């Protein structure tokens, strides 16, 4: 499995820490807390903005050892005073394994996952259906028991902590609102059961304002639209100031327009509140738009962890390459691959249609790239784009898309027309068919 | 279908002079019969409410071997002719019956007592609560429960404040149905009880006994009283239910 550079850095850091400047780190943190409480005033999500989140580096220095000091005793509960809240949690998942016992045998839903989620950042778990995203989220929430591995919240080993004690806010795909309670009662529920000493009515009002539902507190969930219910669920999850917000396909049941609106709203809200956020989605646009860090899952393994740009620009595995964009898939022995001088031990090669350099006039080579001849065999009209199928002389076919404007103008191709193209070898990736399979392994 | 027999009974009752009606309706035997009928029906309904809820919960929430059989067996009281039910109960709870022999040692007599009346009522009305609760429980999302936990609610808090409230209206409906079924039960009780006035005689059996003695007036009077009381109770239950629904949107 690919490992991001951060893992390695952190591992190296961890080694030096054990002997390292533990005292100083703690002292620093304490000083920071004092400063914070000196200028902090009152509760409320908005005042959290002023807080400078502790940087990941600072957080890590505060880690004496992975399994050491963190005991349940140190758990300090929900902090209602924003001034006392440092920031979101640093979540670290180590070697996470989850097996389900089913009637057909053991099903391996998560098979050894390592991931770090920096405080106050947004992390998206992305992957095909059944890849284990929800399972990982539920493990972090404490709704499933782990088969193996550990979960750390800051320096606390949270693996065996009960759901109730994890101070996470959770938003379910179905929203899971309490239908017999009004919107305000839904939001207040967490404050009541945790017996938090705050002006509950005021807090509920603040939260409803935050999610732009002011004035709807007396409605029942059934009287709201899907998008409004989703926001109630978000307000409810944020009510007791969790340090970690978990969202399982929060916009899954909504139409495209509402999704986009809510997505923008969500990003703003979680940044305002400063809560660490993990969002499960299989909408790539959503993941890339929202997240600071995207984790790509397949079959219970992590394929790649990285920033949206990194994942788009430098897919680490054939699976990611195929998953995050259009690809052409040709045999490694095909004319095109050989003429591109791309060497691979794998049986097939893929590249993006957008990496095709196409010429309508014959040329032998361009910038040292040998050009391969092909014939336009099909033209598919897809609205704003036009997709051509190009057939090489060895009967291998690839697809090539242009915008409608281009197709109407300079790049319009006719069926049967002879064209010439090359693909840079750097844009190619060799793979075996099983590398890109996403069917669960039983 | 429904109105005709009721109005027939009422019109017949209206022919009886009010003073005589009142005298017959408040005869000590009749009063005791009403009392036994209603008190035992209430007891039976409460028992059904409690155990029916638990059984429905277990059947929906847990998986265990033999679940299908238990689920099917719940309907048995509906399928069985009530006289057969009475016979079975009388056999089982008899002094030397399967359960009766244990209870006798403890000094508890079921057959030919009020307890027997209650047991018979519980038996014949058992499916109502289970069957009204099951679909509602099935519809309940597991995620609602999990959401409550993640908000910090203990399992008990979750049960009382999140799971139970939406279950109360159907529970009330099921219990009310069980109650009215228990109220009307005749076939099995006439076998299980000794049918002695002031002991374990219930109103429906009293009507039957009056008829046997060609006392049509008495039968009509008691029948009318039963009818009125049942109607008042049904209206009461409906009212309670509407209270439960109050403020809730009609969706
Ligand atoms: N309680 C369970 N018992 C048995 N198998 C389970 C259980 N929960 C999940 N699984 C299996 O684990 C696998 C991963 O499930 P998970 O819900 O994590 O997928 P996902 O990535 O969230 O998919 P989707 O995008 O469809 O929601 C699935 O194949 C699923 O069938
Ligand atoms: Mg899922």
UniProtKB/TrEMBL annotation, chain A:
Bias-annotated ranges (Low complexity): 25-50
PROSITE patterns attached to this UniProt entry: ABC_TRANSPORTER_1, ABC_TRANSPORTER_2
Domain ABC transporter: 91-324
GO cellular component labels: ATP-binding cassette (ABC) transporter complex
Pfam families: ABC_tran (PF00005)
Compositionally biased intervals (Basic and acidic residues): 51-61
Domain of life: Eukaryota
EC number assigned by the record: 3.6.3.25
A GO molecular-function annotation: ATP hydrolysis activity
Region (Disordered): 1-72
Protein source organism: Monoraphidium neglectum
Protein name, entry field: Sulfate transport system ATP-binding protein
Keywords for the protein's UniProt record, in alphabetical order: ATP-binding, Hydrolase, Nucleotide-binding, Sulfate transport, Transport
UniProtKB/TrEMBL annotation, chain B:
SUPFAM superfamilies reported in the protein's UniProt record: MetI-like (SSF161098)
InterPro entries xrefs: CysT_permease (IPR011865), MetI-like (IPR000515), MetI-like_sf (IPR035906), Sulph_transpt2 (IPR005667)
Membrane-spanning parts: 31-60, 72-94, 106-130, 216-240
Subcellular location: Plastid membrane
UniProt GO MF annotations: ABC-type sulfate transporter activity
Entry keyword Nucleotide-binding: no
Top-level taxonomic group: Eukaryota
Alphabetical UniProt keywords: Membrane, Sulfate transport, Transmembrane, Transmembrane helix, Transport
Keyword Transmembrane: yes
Membrane topology, record value: Multi-pass membrane protein
Residue ranges of domain ABC transmembrane type-1 in the record: 34-237
GO cellular component: plasma membrane; plastid membrane
Gene3D superfamilies associated with the record: MetI-like
Pfam families attached to this UniProt entry: BPD_transp_1 (PF00528)
Protein name as catalogued: Putative sulfate transport system permease protein cysT
Lineage: Eukaryota, Viridiplantae, Chlorophyta, core chlorophytes, Chlorophyceae
């Amino acid at each position: 499995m690919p490992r991001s550079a951060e893992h390695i850095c952190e591992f190296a850091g961890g080694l030096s820490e054990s002997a390292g400047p533990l005292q100083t780190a703690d002292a620093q943190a304490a000083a920071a807390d004092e400063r914070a409480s000196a200028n902090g005033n009152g509760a409320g999500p908005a005042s959290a903005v002023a807080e400078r989140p502790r940087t990941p580096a600072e957080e890590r220095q505060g880690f004496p050892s992975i399994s050491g000091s963190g005991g349940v005793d140190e758990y300090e509960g929900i902090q209602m005073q924003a001034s006392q809240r440092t920031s979101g949690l640093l979540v670290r998942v180590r070697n996470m394994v989850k097996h389900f016992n089913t009637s057909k045998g053991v099903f391996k839903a998560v098979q050894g996952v390592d991931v770090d989620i920096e405080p106050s950042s947004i992390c998206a778990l992305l992957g095909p259906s059944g890849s284990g995203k929800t399972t990982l989220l539920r493990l972090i929430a404490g709704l499933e028991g782990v088969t193996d591995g550990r979960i750390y919240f800051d320096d606390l080993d949270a693996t065996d902590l009960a759901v109730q004690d994890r101070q996470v806010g959770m938003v379910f795909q179905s929203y899971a609102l309490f239908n017999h309670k009004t919107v305000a009662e839904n939001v207040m529920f967490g404050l009541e059961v945790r017996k938090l000493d705050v002006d509950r009515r005021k807090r509920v009002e603040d939260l409803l304002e935050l999610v732009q539902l002011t004035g709807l507190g007396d409605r029942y969930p059934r009287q709201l639209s899907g998008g409004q219910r989703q926001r109630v669920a978000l307000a409810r999850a944020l009510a007791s100031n969790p340090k970690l917000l978990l969202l399982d396909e929060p916009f899954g049941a909504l139409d495209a327009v509402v999704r986009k609106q809510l997505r923008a709203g969500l990003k703003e809200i979680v940044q305002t509140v400063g809560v660490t956020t993990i969002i499960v989605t299989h909408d790539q646009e959503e993941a890339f738009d929202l997240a600071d860090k995207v984790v790509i899952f397949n079959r219970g393994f992590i394929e790649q962890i990285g920033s949206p740009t990194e994942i788009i620009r430098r897919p680490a595995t054939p699976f990611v390459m195929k998953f995050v964009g259009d690809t052409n898939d040709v045999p490694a022995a095909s004319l095109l691959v050989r003429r591109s001088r791309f060497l691979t031990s794998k049986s097939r090669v893929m590249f993006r249609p957008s990496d095709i350099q196409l010429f309508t006039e014959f040329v032998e080579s361009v910038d040292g790239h040998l050009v391969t001849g092909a014939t336009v065999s099909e033209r598919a009209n897809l609205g704003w784009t036009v997709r051509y199928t190009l057939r090489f002389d060895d009967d291998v076919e690839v697809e090539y898309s242009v915008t409608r404007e281009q197709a109407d103008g300079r790049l319009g191709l006719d069926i049967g027309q002879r064209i010439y193209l090359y693909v840079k070898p750097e844009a190619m990736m060799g793979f075996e068919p099983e590398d890109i399979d996403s069917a669960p392994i039983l | 279908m429904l109105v005709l027999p009721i109005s027939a009974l009422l019109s017949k009752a209206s022919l009886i002079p009010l003073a005589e009606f009142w005298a017959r309706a408040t005869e000590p035997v009749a009063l005791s019969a009403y009392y036994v009928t209603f008190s035992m029906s209430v007891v039976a309904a409460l028992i059904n409410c409690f155990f029916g809820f638990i059984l429905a919960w277990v059947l929906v929430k847990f998986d265990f071997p033999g679940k299908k059989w238990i689920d099917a067996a719940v309907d048995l009281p509906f399928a069985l002719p009530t006289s057969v039910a009475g016979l079975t109960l009388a056999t089982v709870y008899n002094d030397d019956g399967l359960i009766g022999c244990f209870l006798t040692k403890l000094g508890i007599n079921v057959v030919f007592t009020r307890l027997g009346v209650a047991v018979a009522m519980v038996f014949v009305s058992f499916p109502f609560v289970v069957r009204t609760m099951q679909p509602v429980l099935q519809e309940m999302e597991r995620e609602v429960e999990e959401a409550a936990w993640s908000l910090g609610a203990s399992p008990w808090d979750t049960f009382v404040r999140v799971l139970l409230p939406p279950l109360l209206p159907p529970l009330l409906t099921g219990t009310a149905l069980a109650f009215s079924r228990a109220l009307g039960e005749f076939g099995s009780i006439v076998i299980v009880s000794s049918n002695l006035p002031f002991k374990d005689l219930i109103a429906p059996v009293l009507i039957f006994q009056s008829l046997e003695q060609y006392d049509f007036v008495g039968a009509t009077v008691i029948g009318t009283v039963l009818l009125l009381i049942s109607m008042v109770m049904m209206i009461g239950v409906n009212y309670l239910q509407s209270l439960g629904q109050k403020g809730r949107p009609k969706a």
